[in-house]
Each structure stands twice: as C-alpha cells, then as structure tokens.
Design brief:
The complex is a heterodimer of chains A (265) and B (265). With 265 residues, chain A is mainly alpha-helical. Chain A has one domain. In chain A, 79% of the residues lie in helices and 0% in strands. In chain A, helix 3 packs antiparallel against helix 4, helix 4 packs across helix 5 and helix 5 runs parallel beside helix 8. Chain B has one domain. Chain B has ten helices and no strands. In chain B, 46% of the residues are buried. The chains are: A mainly alpha (265), B mainly alpha (265). Chains A and B meet through helix 2, helix 3, helix 4, helix 5 and helix 9 of A and helix 2, helix 3, helix 4 and helix 8 of B.
Chain lengths: 265, 265
C-alpha cells in the first residue's frame, strides 16, 4: 500500500498537468463550434442546388460532421493523441524509473515481493488514469453543454469520451511492456513519442481510405467514432483486440518483472 | 571537433531508425494515393466549394487531392509533425543528456569553452536535421515521381516544401536548445521541449478549424510551411523571417544562458 500511495504522490503534478491540458484542448476547440456550425449551414444551402446524387454522397457525411457529436469526434482525435502520450509515458516511466534513478536496490530490499511491487505500481497508474478521465469527462460534458446549439445525444457523447480511457489503458499496457523490453532505457520520452506518433500516423494513413485490415494495426482506430455515433456502441471485434493487446502486454510485464535482473549500484 | 564527431556517432542509431520511419511513411502514405486517384475528381470539385473550416476538418485545405502532389500535400502535415518531433527532442536531448547521464563534469573539465561546446553540439544537431531532411527529400521525390503523370514536375514543389520543413526543424531544434541550455530544469528539458512542440501543433489545428484567428499563425511553426500555400505560391517571406528570428533568439538565449549557468553534477 505504501508503494501505491508513494507513486500516486510522485505523479500527482504530472497527472494534474495532463488533465488540465486535455480539458484545455476540448475547451479551445469546442469554443469554435458555434462559428463552425454557422459555416456549415451556409454550405448546406449551396448543396441544395447540387444534383441529388452528389448531395446524397456528401450530405449524409456533412450532417454527421457538422453536428456537435461530429465536431467533437473530430477534435477527439487530438485528445486521444495527447491522452495516449500521457498513458504510455506513465506506464513506461513508473516501471523503469527505479533502474534509471538507481533506487532499485532500495525498493527491492523492502519486504514485499516483486509481484506486489508490480501490482502496487500498476494499480497506481490505473488510478491516475481513472482520475484523469473522471475529471476530463466532467469538463468535456460541461463544455459541450455550454456550446451546444441543438440538443445532442448524451449517451453517444459519453461513449466517445469513455473511449479515451480504453485507448489509454491499451497504451498503458504497451508502456509497461516497453519498460521491460528496453531495460537500459535512459529516457522514456523518445520511446513514448516515437511509438505514439507512429501509431497516430499509421492511423491517418489507414483512415484516408478506410482500409479494414490496417485498422487492427493502430489502437487509434479501435474506437471508430462514426461507428459509435451510428450504432451507439463499440465494435466488438476491436474491443476484443484491445483487450487482447492489453492482456498480452500486462502478462508479459508481470512475468518479466518478477524474473528480470535488476541493475543495482 | 572530437565533440562533434562523438555527437554524430552517439545518435547514429536513432537517426537510422528515423530514416527507416520516413521511408515507410512516405511510401505507405503515397501507396494509398493509387486507390484514391480514380474517385478523386468529382470529390475534388465538391471539396473546393466547402467553406475553409470544413475543408480543415476533411484535412484537404486548398489541395487538389486528385493530383499526386496535392495528395502529398495532405500527407506533408504528418511528415512535418514527424520532423518536429525529431527536431525538438534532438535539440533538448543533445544538451541535457550530459546532466542526465552525469557526464557534464567530465565534459566541462575538458579544455574547451562552453561556447565551443555549444557550437559543436549545435553543428552536430544541424547535420542531423540536414540528413533527416535529405532522406525525406529523396524518398519524396522518388515516391511521388512514381505517381506523377508524364511531363508533370513534382521536384520543384517538393523542393520548396522541404525547405519549409528545414525551417520548421531549425526552429524546433533551437527551441529545444534554449530550453536545455538556458532553462533551469535539465531533467525535464526534453519533456518541456516536446510539450511546446505539441502545443504549437494543436494551435495550428485550432487555427485551421477556426479560420478566423489567422494572426495566430505566426505563433505556430507548423503554419510556416502550410502545404497548400507552399505548393501554390512558395514559402512566405514573412514566415521565413519570423522563423529565422525565433531560432536566432532561442540560440542567443541558449548561448548566453548556458555560459553562466550552474551545471548540476
């Protein structure tokens, strides 16, 4: 329990900062929604004069993107980008900092098993992410209510917002695995940013054509927001895919953490 | 000179990984163009009629995505993001790693002035940027050229885009240098530098979505090399001057600050 509280305290500042930035992004972007919606209205009038086939092809998409949910889905891409960096950084850092700061012998000389250390650390990371999401959920909900023009479906809004937590959990697990795969890591950030941005760019390439296979490659595509908006739920196969990735990384983490050589000085 | 050579060697491996990433991104991204090209034309006419803020959401801006160079322009934003991640981390890391790895005592005991030390590290950083940029340039010309129609010149706009990218890289490298050289928290330098970079990226997205806060464009280097603008009319002189001025200011701060700073040992 001591380790748990210690870690919570150690990451208090960082987590606060991340939570504030996530809410800040939503505030900054959603503030533009009213003027954006007005633009869209004007364009819809232009569309009226177009042939019906074209209107059908684009109009549907336009309707979904110009609603509050559609706009929120769009900016949520950037929220998940930042959230993933937070989660993976947390996961990698919390497991590897003992080795880096040469405090591993101190920690591991305590009368707790390695399994208990791992459990305490991963629980602390989980708690931090849950707190981040709880605050973020509240903030995003408030902001959305403040800028809305017409009423929107709060259930779908909640599902989209909740997908942040799920993506973060996947990246947290990837972070755990990365910390143990690269035990001699000197800094966490290059690995974190490299991984997250690589997935982010793959996600963009996949999204531009809607390639089905490519979607499995990047967690950013697991919770397709237009699907959520249309069906009011997550896609089961991708829910399973993220659970599998998280479980594999976590199992690897637990097994490896219990056995590995620890550099002590 | 020894220091310069050492720095070149120290990040050789990571530079290689980056280059592999660049080639994969350019080839993968343009590979998607082949599928887009057929259906692009009618879509494109419609896109041109969209209000600017909506274009930003679709990610096309003023680009003609039915031509290879226009599609490359859409991709360019993400390539630029890669370059910015690389440059901002490199700039901060190359300086702050001495304090992190507790080697600054060793380094500063050598008979060279701090100015010369900074110059050597800056030169090494610049060479890294140029190699990064050259790899991007070569792979872009080769890959985009594959898709170009007979007689269509893609080399000229790509050259202009790459110069823009070099400018952005230079700004972020200098900013990272300033954070690590003049800032008081060398351990957090890389994080701060990457944070600033991410912030300007989000600002750039906000500027594009809003469409009405154009004066903020000068605050985000990502806007200095806006693909649509560069392909249409070349780099803007105002942006080039602003970029160079910001970089010069950052470097000045780094040199002055580092000369008189306490080094943590």
């Amino acid at each position: 329990m001591n380790i748990f509280w210690y870690e919570l305290k150690a990451y208090r500042g960082t987590t606060l900062l991340w939570t504030a930035s996530l809410a800040g992004i939503v505030l900054l972007m959603m503030a533009m929604f009213p003027s954006f919606a007005k633009d869209a209205d004007a364009f819809r009038e232009v569309l009226q004069s177009m042939p019906e086939a074209v209107m059908k092809a684009v109009g549907l998409q336009l309707d979904s993107i110009t609603s509050l949910i559609g706009f929120y889905s769009y900016i949520f891409t950037y929220v998940t980008l930042c959230g993933s960096i937070q989660a993976m950084h947390l996961g990698t850092s919390i497991l590897s900092k003992e080795g880096r700061e040469k405090t591993a012998d101190f920690l591991l000389a305590k009368p707790v098993t390695r399994g208990a250390v791992f459990a305490a650390k991963s629980l602390a990371a989980l708690t931090l992410l849950l707190l981040t999401n709880a605050v973020f959920f509240g903030a995003a909900g408030l902001i959305a209510t403040a800028v809305k023009i017409a009423s929107f479906d709060f259930g779908i809004f909640a599902l989209i917002t909740l997908s942040l937590l799920l993506i973060q959990l996947v990246f947290l697990a990837i972070g755990f695995a990365a910390a143990l795969l690269l035990p001699r890591m000197k800094t966490v950030l290059p690995v974190t940013l490299g991984t997250v941005f690589a997935f982010f760019i793959i996600s963009f390439i996949g999204a531009s054509t809607g390639d089905g296979k490519l979607r499995y490659l990047t967690p950013f595509q697991y919770f397709d927001r237009s699907y959520i908006a249309a069906h009011g739920g997550y896609e089961p196969e991708f829910l399973i895919a993220s659970a599998v990735i998280a479980a594999v990384c976590l199992t690897y983490g637990i097994v490896r953490y219990a056995k590995r050589d620890v550099q002590a000085t | 000179m020894n220091l310069f050579r050492r720095e070149m060697k120290a990040s050789r491996k990571s530079l290689l990984i980056w280059i592999v990433g660049i080639i994969a991104m350019v080839a993968g991204g343009m590979g998607k163009y082949a599928g887009m090209a057929e259906s692009g034309d009618s879509m494109n006419e419609l896109m041109a009629d969209l209000p600017k803020t909506l274009q930003a959401v679709f990610g096309v801006a003023d680009l003609d995505i039915s031509t290879p160079i226009g599609y490359y322009g859409v991709l360019f934003l993400y390539l630029l993001l890669m370059a910015a991640v690389h440059a901002s981390m490199l700039g901060a890391n190359i300086l702050s790693k001495e304090e992190r790895d507790k080697t600054s005592e060793f380094l500063l005991a050598k008979p060279i002035s701090r100015d010369r030390l900074l110059t050597a590290k800056l030169l090494a950083g610049l060479v890294h940027l140029i190699v990064f940029n050259a790899a991007m340039w070569a792979s872009s010309v080769l890959v985009v050229g594959q898709y170009a129609a007979e007689g269509e010149s893609v080399a000229a706009p790509i050259a202009e885009l790459m110069l823009g990218m070099l400018l952005v890289q230079f700004v972020f490298l200098s900013a990272g240098f300033a954070v690590a050289g003049a800032g008081g928290r060398p351990k957090r330098a890389v994080a701060i530098s990457a944070g600033v970079m991410l912030l300007t990226f989000l600002l750039s997205v906000a500027v594009e979505v809003s469409g009405s806060i154009d004066f903020l464009r000068f605050l985000s280097p990502f806007q200095y090399a806006d693909a649509a603008e560069v392909i249409e009319s070349g780099l803007g002189l105002g942006f080039v001057l602003t970029g160079v001025a910001i970089a010069a200011l950052c470097l000045f701060a780094a040199f002055v600050g580092y000369r008189r700073r306490d080094i943590q040992v």
